Amino acid sequence: MRVLVSTIVALNPGDAAILRGTERLLQQAFGESVEVVAVDKNATAASALYPWMHFVPSLFAPRPRGGIGRTITRLGYEHRLWRFDAWRLRWAGRLMQYGWHPVAALFAADGERDVLAEYLRADLVVASGGTYLVPAYDTESPLRDYELTLALDRPLAFMPQSMGPFTNTRLVKRFADVFGRSRFVFVRDEQSRQHLESIGVPAGRVRIVPDAAFALATRPSAGATPRVPAVASIASPVRRVAISVREWKHFADGSGDGGEDRYFAGVAALANWLVTTHDAEVTFLSSCQGIPDYWTDDAATARRVVARLDPAVAARVTVDGVFRDPAALQATLGTFDLVVATRMHVAILALCAGCPVLPIAYEFKTTELFKRLRLAWLAVPIEEATADGLISRAERLLREWPAVRETLASGVQGLTEELQSTVAVIRRFSGSITGSENSR
After folding, report:
1. Is residue 55 within 8 Å of 46, Cβ to Cβ?
2. Prediction pTM value
3. Domain with CATH 3.40.50.2000 in the chain
């Protein structure tokens, strides 16, 4: 069995955690011998970071253009070049499918044909989980990938995502067609399911399941009690706190840079309160850091927050800018008593390691996750991540510490068990794939 995982951005270690979890689920569905290949726009850099996965370059990554192409781009018509690229790649793939490789060479370069061959060899193509089919990002690039997959007669499916809304996009009909022709569509939350329902995707095609990264959770032994911080005291259950921050401009209230400044000030106030009131050691630690090829560095953002602290407090705060792969990041997060997480997969990996989390929700995906964990009140919308908003939520968390810790542990165990139900769904659809292949 050969599975291609498309539209992944593995330079984001949160997405790499999704990829690792997806690989585990596929192994459970198809056996350890399943071959998994990931399609990434930064395949070379991703291969260096994650040697456990075979990466191939995306066909729809930004590319250098010749003189005519640069002129067309300057005139504002690059979208026509992308449309032409999608057309020629589709033709090249179809020609290769029927063995007309010399003719296909007229439409696609050698490297492009190598990637097309990976698609044609795949028994199943799954779109990576994550959050990228949302209005804040370019959604046409992954859409072209899905349309190519279907044009090459490859079975397409979607791993757990948060997506939509689609109703205010000119691409809505194309998305509805792609989802309607997919074998299954996994979403992470009810809001995403409603977004798909609103564009006419059949209800039987969509299933709400947990994020694939929960497949990485450390399974407690029978009769084990929830993890208790080794240095906790009755006065303060947290002494070692990790904080994850990120750049963010897409505030629901339209505040942009002003909203980001408010958010940074709120996190700085929380760090100050943890140090001065609870004698805590605070470490800024995140997922997207220490990767020169990635577009952002959370450690640089953390330094902007720490610069707001009084020198006496800042001296007791550390910025950890080291890159860690998902396994190493999960292990490190597990050494803290509490993680304040803006990055959702920092939250998930901390939970997978048994560490309680105070989440800052910059998108609905985090709010929906903590609803499923039966602790909706715990998630602080980023628009409310002010000094008062964060400290008051942290105070309540510490007052209810034993109950919150127990609820989170129980919730994570429930999500990991629920995630196993996807294995049966994947396996069931693989039967139909095998049957259709044998009938050709």
Report:
1. yes
2. 0.92
3. 240-415
Average pLDDT over residues 55-64: 89
- Domain 240-415 is classified in which CATH homologous superfamily? Glycogen Phosphorylase B; (3.40.50.2000)
Tabulate helix, strand, coil % of the chain (nearest 5).
50, 15, 35
Q: What gap in Å lies between CA 369 and CA 353, rounded to an integer?
A: 17
Compute the distance between CA of residue 5 and CA of residue 184 in angstroms, rounded to an integer: 14
In what helix (H) or strand (E) does residue 357 lie, and over which residues does it extend?
strand 357-361
The whole-number average pLDDT for the span 377-391 is 98
pLDDT reading at 231 higher than 50: no
Of all residues in the chain, what percent carry a pLDDT higher than 90?
Answer: 83
d(C-alpha 320, C-alpha 368), whole Å:
29
Burial label, 75 (beta-carbon count in 10 A; 0-12, 13-18, 19+):
exposed
* CATH code at 2-208: 3.40.50
Q: Which amino acid is at 117?
A: A
Q: By CB neighbour count within 10 A (0-12 exposed, 13-18 middle, 19+ buried), where does 304 fall?
A: middle
CA angle 122, 127, 133 (to 5 degrees): 155
Alpha carbon distance 316, 301 (integer Å) = 18
Contacts of 14 (CB under 8 A, 6+ apart): 130, 213, 287, 288, 343, 344, 345, 346, 348
Q: What angle do CA 270, 130, 250 make, to 5 degrees?
A: 50
- Note whether 373 and 410 are within 8 A (CB): no
Residue 218 has pLDDT above 90, yes or no: no
Residue 130 is classified by DSSP as B
Q: What confidence category does residue 26 fall into, taking pLDDT thresholds of 50, 70 and 90?
A: very high
